[in-house]
Known about the structure:
Shape: globular
Largest sheet: none
Distance between the termini: 46 Å
Structural class: mainly alpha
Helix content: over 70%
Strand content: under 5%
Mean pLDDT: 91
Amino acid sequence: MSFDFYIFQAFHNLANKSNFFDGLIVFLAGYLQYVLLALAIFLLLAKIKDWRHQLYIVSVFLLSAIISRGLITEIIRFFYHRLRPFLALNLTPLVKDFSGSFPSGHMTLYFALALTIFLISRKWTWFFVASVILMGLARIAAGVHWPSDIIGGILIAIISYFIVKKILPSNNKTAN
């Protein structure tokens, strides 16, 4: 058995043990994303008053998301189709998702968001990074991703973010 399988089993064994933990897994895997988006918009509007800097931050996020989720993830999935764990192992997932498993689209999108938060607030960046990692672990526990899907998504987001930061002209504003 593979390293991926053992890690998956460790996290998926948390599922279907209690209603509380199943509810927590479902929230983290399926609904935390909406909380993070709303919080990111609030932070952008509350902390950044200059509309040009707001536009720069939104541009960094959108371009990072397009490159990571819209391009790289879809190109990989076009050439490499990996079954989700619940399909490969004939399990009942806590959340449903039927597209390809590798890389995790959630991780490519939301880790790009977490990195972009650094342009707004360094303090909040750690909260976002931790939240997105929890989201990824919950998606493993829910049965919809292998651990390498999560790691692959994070790496793609990091690469995409730094590509965008390299090509977009910086407005030299720093986060606090």
